[in-house]
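Late entry, written up from scratch paper. The run itself happened at the end of the previous shift, but nothing got recorded in the book at the time, so transcribing now.
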Amino acid sequence: MKKRELTPQQVKSQEVKNRIYQAAVKLLRDYEYEYVTMRNICKEAEVSAGTFYHHFQNKDELLSYYIVYGYREFYANCQVEYTEDIVENIVKIYDIYLSFCLQNGVAFLSNFYTTKNKGVYLRNIRREEELAQKPGLHEAVKMLDLGKKKGYIKEEVVSLQVGFDLGVIMKGIIFDWCLGEGSFDLRQEGTKLIKRTLHSLMTPKYFEEFGY
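Output as recorded:
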């Protein structure tokens, strides 16, 4: 099937949206979270308030776009080879996310992962469309569902709930890494915590086939 080409107007609209996003990312790298206001974002992106609200309802939605657009683009450029091992596959998903975070550095992550940023809150997700807007979570939930279908994960496990729990682990380890000013291996520690959590959900069938 031939890929549908965007019209010149759609291309221009996407370029403006990305410029707003890049402006917010720059401000988060250079300033405290409180400085990243709609007014300052518009000034940095050289767009009007009307243009901002045409693309984003508020700052929280814009910062959520960082996860959707930035991570999706990063993920698409990674060569991911999944195996039959559900745990290792989910570890790969979150390792890619941590790699994506690392490229932004301590200063940016310290400002992004704050209690003031509602864009990193996941537990209010209910609909499939909302889940699809969180690429890492969406991919992990699909992998968990597959693990249940194959009998590797306990029947009582709720995939989306586990996805929320893994999101909390990710936020916690990133926050701790920021507090320590990047003093430990973020990916290594993240892998350890994800594995420890997932192993508690596995059935004997999983361990018989894959061990620890």
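The domain at 1-56 is CATH 1.10.10 (Arc Repressor Mutant, subunit A).
(Scratch paper discarded after transcription.)
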